[in-house]
Amino acid sequence: MTPPQHPGQPDWRGRGTPPADPATQRLPSASRVEPPTDQLRAQGRAGRTRPRIRRAPSPADARPTQVIPPVPGAPPPPDSPRAPRRRNRQSIVLIAMIVLALLAGGLAGGELYARHRADTILVEVAECVVEDGAAVSFGVNPPFLWQYATGDYTNISVTTDGNRVQSANGMTAEVTLADVRLHESENSKGTIGSLNATLRWTSNGIKDTVAENLPGVGNLITGVRTDRVAGTVILDAGDNHVTAKPVVTDGDLNLEVLGVTGPLPKEAVQTALNDLTKKLNDNYPLGIHADSVDVTDSGVVGKFSSHNASIPNEDANPCFARL
Q1: Tens place of pLDDT for every residue, the chain, 323 residues?
Q2: How far apart are CA 281 and CA 177, in angstroms?
């Protein structure tokens, strides 16, 4: 029989009995109930609200927020509030560019139309006056559309094909008109500030012109040659010839007969040539008159001009009816 053991005393084998667990002894009993007073105190502590202390703003909070600039070419973030405003600005710029492009295209089209129409009209007028083909060009300053709209042209150039100028066969005209004002009035279509023309008359053209306009004498002419040094024109009629010198007299271009070899008297030849040059001088429009004349190796070159000329109505000259 084993004798009763007391805690802490060794058993019969010489070992002591281990003491009871202190933690187990401290556990509260399950049957213990918290007093009501303790519960009220706990609820009071739970319901009590601690006052919130506001912190004074520091100097760092007053500093402006640094804005990082966008990367060039990078699209704005989809949730950025500035994106709609930026898109609106781009739309306005795009619309403005489209409007400017349309205006530029309209002006260019108007410029081409005005040039084409003016070119067509003035070519018809020039061809009617000279009785030959002609080409017309206009000055570029100010823009031609403005010149066309106002009727004031800074300068106009006309060059003929060289077949004839009215009754003069083989003649080429190079004409420059400046300060042309197409403002129709009762007596004129407008005015021309200045006109300068260079007329080139070839030797063969002189021969054909004499033959066509002076049948009695012209049929005898077999050729025409020039002497540039002497400044004379020689009309050959077989073994006979007539030597004449082109001169300017009172604004008219004349052929002064210096000598005749053959049966024809000098006075008769001079009268025939005077009739020819008078016909040419009288047909020049716009008050054009001769300023100078030179003899070249290939013919005769005359300088002509006119200032403050009045453009005639169609009643005076039908060639200007289209203006």
Answers
A1: 445 555 545 554 445 555 554 444 444 444 444 555 555 455 545 455 555 555 555 555 555 555 555 555 555 555 555 656 666 777 777 777 777 776 666 666 667 777 888 889 999 999 999 999 999 999 878 888 888 889 999 999 999 999 999 999 999 999 999 999 999 888 899 999 999 999 999 999 999 999 888 877 777 888 999 999 999 999 998 889 999 999 999 999 999 999 999 888 899 889 989 999 999 999 999 999 999 999 999 999 999 999 999 999 988 899 998 88
A2: 19
pTM above 0.85, yes or no: no
Cβ-based neighbours of 218, under 8 Å, separated by 6 or more: 210, 211, 212
The answer to whether the beta carbons of residues 303 and 293 sit under 8 Å apart is yes
Continuous segment of H or E residues that includes residue 287 = none
Chain centroid, CA 223 distance in Å:
52
Smallest CA-to-CA distance from 17 within 7, 2, 27, 26 is with: 7
Confirm if 322 and 121 have CB atoms less than 8 A apart. yes
Q: Which one, of 160, 171, 110, lies nearest residue 134 by Cα?
A: 160
Closest CA to 201 of 243, 158, 169: 169
Which residues, in sequence order, are CB contacts of 232 under 8 Å at separation 6+? Answer: 226, 243, 244, 245, 258, 295
Q: The tokens 């429009």 sit on which residue?
A: 285
CA–CA distance, 163 with 322 (Å, rounded to integer): 24
